[in-house]
Each structure stands twice: as structure tokens, then as C-alpha cells.
Design goal:
- This protein has 225 residues and is mostly beta strands.
- The protein has two domains: 115 residues, Sandwich (Immunoglobulin-like), CATH 2.60.40; 84 residues, Immunoglobulin-like (Sandwich).
- The protein is 2% helix and 51% strand.
- The strands form four sheets. Strands 2, 4, 5, 7, 9 and 10 form a six-stranded mixed beta sheet that branches.
- β16 and β17 form a beta hairpin.
Length: 225
């Protein structure tokens, strides 16, 4: 049987936060394996529409270098630079996507696994207004019949949701461990739930928000009229 070639690329940090007048930041790529890796780095504007993430081409941020070959054990600094240094009027969201490209593997050596990282980049707006999220959640059913959690964020800043729980936030039943996703300011997102519908009837939800250690109740959204 053939062997499996495991990916060895690591990226840090896992997100970037730029202040209103900060023009650049950086990521570190590390090849922790024993063979060279070829890496491609791209940046996209991050929007949300109809409950889905949308990544759009952008020239508002640039990455350098966009392509890089890393020898075993090598580190590489990737600069993330704003094209327009003017402070934005509202929080801006982007994604830096780092792909480990497949190498030329001789025939018959087996499968090759490569990694993709997608790191959020947020540029904070000018002004003294506090940045905060304001979440409301409701249960709905998708067109394919699956139950889903819909979360609306009426605030002016993103919310990262993890460890979705049912019932009391003090003693939740975690139905989605780990990261669920983000809701950008002013947007609505939907996520399917792999939970029997009977368990969800009349359920209240909680989540860990923006890396907090404690569960936070998600207020119930008013019923649609």
C-alpha cells in the first residue's frame, strides 16, 4: 500500500486586528516537516449574504510575498499591507487564505494531504464609538429539511461563536463543540445543526463568544411577522 504524505504547514497568529491608522501587520508561516512545501497566499474581502460567507477579490489589502517555497524547518514572514491608509468609517473584514500546494509525488506513493488556512483580518473604524456585537438567535428549517441556527448581529462589530449549547448557559448541553463561525456586524448567518428536531423544540441557545471561557445566552429573536 502507498503511504500518505502529511501536511506540515503552520500559520500564526490565527487572526489579525488592525487599528484605524495601522497600515500593516504580518503572519508567520512555518514548515515543521522534513520536506519543502510550496505556499500560496491570497487575500479576499469578507462579506456575508443570505446566511453564507462570501469571499470577494480585493485590492484593499495586499500580501507579500504571495508565493513562497519553504524548506524544511524554515519560517517566512508574510506582510499584510493596506492599500488605502485612511481609517474606515465602519469595521472592515477580510480573509487571508494560505494554501499549501500539492508537490510532485511519484506515481504509486499514495495520497497527499495539503492544508488550507483562512485567517480573519479586521480593520477597526475611526471614531470613539464603542465596538460591540448584539446577537439574536432563532431556530429555523432549511429547504432540505435540516434544522439550523440563525444568528443576527445588529451590532457594529463581529462575533465569533463556539461551543453551541442547548438549555441553561450555566449547564448547557453542547451540541456543536468548537468553532461554529462568525457573524459580522449588521449581518445574519445560518448553520445547520446535527441534532434531532425533537431536542430542539422550544430550545434556548448559548455560545462562547469571541474566545470567552464562559457560555453566554443567545437572546431569542422575535418571531417573523
Amino acid at each position: 500500500m502507498g503511504s500518505a504524505t502529511a501536511a506540515s504547514l503552520q500559520v500564526a497568529p490565527t487572526s489579525l486586528q488592525l487599528t484605524p491608522r495601522q497600515n500593516a501587520d504580518a503572519l508567520w508561516l512555518t514548515n515543521s516537516g522534513t520536506a519543502p512545501v510550496q505556499v500560496q497566499v491570497r487575500v479576499f474581502e469578507w462579506r456575508q449574504d443570505s446566511g453564507q460567507d462570501q469571499l470577494l477579490p480585493t485590492t484593499e489589502l495586499q500580501v507579500s510575498p504571495p508565493m513562497q517555497s519553504l524548506a524544511a524547518g524554515q519560517q517566512q514572514l508574510i506582510r499584510v499591507v493596506r492599500s488605502d491608509p485612511a481609517p474606515p468609517a465602519a469595521q472592515r473584514a477580510y480573509r487571508v487564505v494560505v494554501d499549501e500546494l500539492p508537490s510532485a509525488v511519484p506515481q504509486g506513493t499514495g495520497m497527499q494531504f495539503v492544508l488550507r488556512y483562512s485567517m480573519p483580518v479586521f480593520i477597526q473604524p475611526a471614531g470613539d464609538a464603542p465596538l460591540k456585537h448584539a446577537l439574536q438567535a432563532r431556530l429555523l428549517r432549511l429547504d432540505d429539511g435540516r434544522p439550523a441556527l440563525e444568528v443576527h448581529n445588529s451590532g457594529n462589530s463581529y462575533a465569533q461563536l463556539a461551543d453551541i449549547g442547548l438549555g441553561s448557559a450555566d449547564r448547557p448541553q453542547i451540541v456543536h463543540p468548537g468553532l461554529l463561525g462568525y457573524v459580522l456586524g449588521g449581518q445574519t448567518m445560518r448553520w445547520p445543526l446535527d441534532v434531532p428536531a425533537a431536542r430542539l423544540a422550544g430550545a434556548t441557545f448559548s455560545a462562547k463568544i469571541n474566545g470567552e471561557s464562559a457560555q453566554t445566552p443567545l437572546p431569542v429573536a422575535p418571531a417573523a411577522r
